[in-house]
Write the structure tokens for this entry.
Amino acid sequence: MITPTGPDPIDVAVGTRIRVQRRHMKISQDELAQVLGLTFQQVQKYERGTNRVSASMLVRIAAKLQTTVGSLVGEDVVAEQDVAMLTALSTPGAIDLLRAYGQATPKARKAILNVAKALVEPDDTADVA
């Protein structure tokens, strides 16, 4: 369902959880779509929350992604997960970066973190005109 301001936030959160789990399992949208008898565009719409996932489809998606429906709808999450965290994890490359970070030595983790922060923080040393 699309509200006057866009997709329903619940549908967006469910879609984000689907995307995060799919990427964690290293399954492409196309592969998931094939198993479900859908087009990859439909999977894309589910993941963006623009199309609502039916209960029967949610069960099939959960089975393919080796998770539970409760997990995809946020029922078995300790405290409702931050949509911001789920959105960050669904950013292209985020899961790969997290995997690399987890495999790095403590010294390398510190370096990765410093580089990442330097890339997103404003440069305080820039010349002021």
In short: The chain has a mean pLDDT of 86. The chain has eight helices and two strands. The two ends are 49 Å apart (CA to CA).
